[in-house]
């Protein structure tokens, strides 16, 4: 089974436009995928309101209309959304509770000051202090819950590199272990996110030693996604994710249907 459980369409403000859900499904069929999740952004802010989605109501409605169940002979399309900062405001819980989804991705993009990690001025910041605050926020998000897949825990590594500073979690494995413990205890699927393949790292995340540690600690649920924002990047890196998963001893990927986990053999 070839899966890609994290991708964006034109509903996401940072994705290629135009790029309809129908276009995306077609591109995934062409790419030979068997199961996909359409997971556009909706980020909640502490200061109130949302961002990163052009029309959350229409997005939720259309993705549910366009879902295709398994066993129809063609591609399976899961209706999802990538919700940023579910712990930031009760509005986030209300949104998830009042819309039907197969899968909800829980992401931490913005820190408590509502600034996306991507836009932080890392050359002029205490990066050690930042990373501890990041892990604190990630743990709060996990504790809060309301989602199925824990997205890209290595997101800061993608965007913190500057000058001679090479970001790494190597000196933060105690914090990573806290995150993995909570992930396992809450039943989230830890995401292998392929976006790093297009960045400075040139490889999918999280770093492989984190995957080993997750397995050693008893982790069983993983998710796999390209985090594609354009039509020509569906499935990009998902084979690398599968390779890493198998190498770490995982034999199945977790797919959520109507928010219930199902283990699907990786090969
Ligand atoms: Zn994300
Ligand atoms: Zn995404």
TrEMBL record:
Which reactions fall under this protein's catalytic activity? Answer: L-histidinol phosphate + H2O = L-histidinol + phosphate
Instruction: State the coiled-coil residue ranges.
Output: none
E.C. numbers: 3.1.3.15
For molecular function, the Gene Ontology terms on record are: histidinol-phosphatase activity
Q: Which UniProt keywords apply?
A: Amino-acid biosynthesis, Histidine biosynthesis, Hydrolase
Looking up SMART domains in the UniProt record yields: POLIIIAc (SM00481)
Mind telling me which SUPFAM superfamilies this protein's record contains? Answer: PHP domain-like (SSF89550)
Does this entry carry the keyword Hydrolase?
Answer: yes
On whether Hydrolase is a keyword of this UniProt record, the answer is: yes
Pfam families assigned: PHP (PF02811)
Q: Which GO terms describe its biological process?
A: L-histidine biosynthetic process
Q: Which GO terms describe its cellular component?
A: cytoplasm
Q: Which residues form the Polymerase/histidinol phosphatase N-terminal domain?
A: 3-87
Highest taxon in the source lineage: Bacteria
Q: In which pathway does it act?
A: Amino-acid biosynthesis; L-histidine biosynthesis; L-histidine from 5-phospho-alpha-D-ribose 1-diphosphate: step 8/9
PANTHER family listed in its UniProt record: HISTIDINOL PHOSPHATASE-RELATED, HISTIDINOL-PHOSPHATASE
Q: Which family does it belong to?
A: Belongs to the PHP hydrolase family. HisK subfamily.
Q: What is this protein called?
A: Histidinol-phosphatase
Q: Which organism is it from?
A: Agathobaculum butyriciproducens
């Amino acid at each position: 089974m070839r899966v890609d459980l994290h991708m964006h369409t034109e509903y996401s403000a940072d994705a290629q436009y135009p790029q309809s859900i129908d276009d995306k499904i077609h591109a995934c069929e062409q790419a030979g995928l068997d199961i996909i999740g359409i997971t556009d952004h909706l980020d909640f802010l502490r200061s109130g309101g949302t961002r990163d989605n052009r029309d959350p109501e229409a997005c939720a409605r259309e993705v549910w209309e366009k879902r295709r169940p398994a066993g129809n002979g063609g591609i399976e399309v899961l209706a999802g959304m990538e919700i940023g900062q579910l712990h930031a405001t009760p509005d986030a819980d209300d949104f998830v509770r009042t819309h039907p989804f197969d899968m909800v991705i829980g992401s931490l993009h913005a820190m408590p000051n509502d600034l996306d990690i991507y836009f932080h001025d890392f050359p002029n910041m205490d990066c050690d202090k930042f990373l501890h605050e990041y892990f604190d926020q990630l743990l709060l998000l996990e504790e809060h819950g309301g989602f199925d897949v824990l997205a890209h825990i290595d997101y800061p590594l993608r965007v913190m590199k500057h000058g001679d500073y090479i970001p790494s979690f190597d000196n933060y494995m105690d914090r990573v272990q806290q995150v993995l413990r909570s992930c396992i205890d809450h039943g989230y699927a830890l995401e292998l996110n392929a976006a790093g393949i297009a960045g400075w790292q040139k490889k999918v995340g999280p770093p492989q030693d984190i995957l080993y540690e997750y397995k050693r600690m008893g982790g069983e649920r993983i998710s796999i996604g390209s985090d594609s924002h354009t039509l020509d990047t569906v499935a990009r890196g998902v084979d690398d994710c599968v390779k890493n998963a198998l190498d770490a001893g995982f034999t199945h990927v977790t797919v959520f249907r109507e928010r219930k986990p199902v283990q699907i053999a990786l090969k």
